[in-house]
Amino acid sequence: MIYENFNIKSFMENHITQNSNMILFSSRVGIGKTTFAIYFIQELFKQNKKVLFFSLENSVDELTHKIKDITKSYSFFNNLYLSNEINQEKILREIKKNSNISLIIFDYLQLYKFDEKFLEKLKSMKIPILILSQLNRQNLKNKIPNKKDIREIELLDKYIDIFLFLYKNSDENVEIFTKK
């Protein structure tokens, strides 16, 4: 696993399964945001938890294959809802329709164009949310990213509880770090 310096189980216990945090997970293009989200899904499946995954980045078929490749199983489909829905009201209805949700994932922020009303409704549902986001491309080569490097941060900043960053350091190793 490329995330050796990051304890997914511990992070999930402290920030997802026990809390209703809104987490923004950012990296440059092609570093592994969706793969990382699938590791979260895999951990939740082990606990028989339910996940809603909304993606405009990948088709439902592509996501299904990615998830199967990582989890090595199709048995997760009872606990997973995959969607390419973009309409915010339909997304909210889908969330309300599904009970006992342990995590909602959006892949990725810049394709969804969230508005403040939608974010407020999501936050009020008290369900952990993981939003994948791309970093601005300017000045990121070998630089440790921060909130200012996130596209669309102005709208999201007051809703996000935890910022996760995935980046390649100068040695081309992938690192993850968090900021509140």
Task: Tell me about this structure.
- By secondary structure, this protein is an alpha/beta fold.
- The protein has a single domain (8-179), classed as P-loop containing nucleotide triphosphate hydrolases (Rossmann fold), CATH 3.40.50.
- Helices cover 34% and strands 23% of the residues.
- It contains seven helices and seven strands; from the N terminus they run αβαβαβαβααβαββ.
- Strands 3-2-4-5-1-6-7 form a seven-stranded mixed beta sheet.
- Strand 6 and strand 7 (174-179) form a beta hairpin.
- The radius of gyration is 15 Å and the shape is globular.
- The two termini are 25 Å apart.
Question: What distinguishing features does this structure have?
Answer:
single chain; 180 residues; alpha/beta; Rossmann fold; 7 helices; 7 strands; globular
Helix content: 25-40%
Written as H for each helix and E for each strand, in order along the chain, the element string is: HEHEHEHEHHEHEE
Distance between the termini: 25 Å
Task: Provide the residue-averaged pLDDT.
Answer: 80
Number of domains: 1
CATH topology: Rossmann fold
Globally, the shape reads globular
The largest sheet has its strands arranged as 3-2-4-5-1-6-7
Biggest sheet descriptor? 7 strands, mixed
Stretches where pLDDT is under 50 for at least 5 consecutive residues are none
- Count of DSSP-assigned helices: 7
- Considering the protein shown, what is the CATH homologous superfamily? P-loop containing nucleotide triphosphate hydrolases
Could you tell me the number of beta strands? 7
Q: Give the class-level CATH name.
A: Alpha Beta
